[in-house]
Amino acid sequence: MTGKLIIVRHAESWWNAEGKWTGTTDVHLSPKGQHEAELMGKALSDLSFDQAYVSEQTRTTETLQGILKSSPTPNVPVTVASALNERDYGTYTGKNKWQVKDEIGEAAFQDLRRSWDYPVPEGETIKAVYERAVPYFHSTILPQLAAGKSVLIVAHGNSIRALIKYLESVSDTDISQIEMIFGTALLYEVDADGRMTTKVVRTIDSPPPPA
Question: Model's pTM, two decimal places?
Answer without folding.
Answer: 0.95
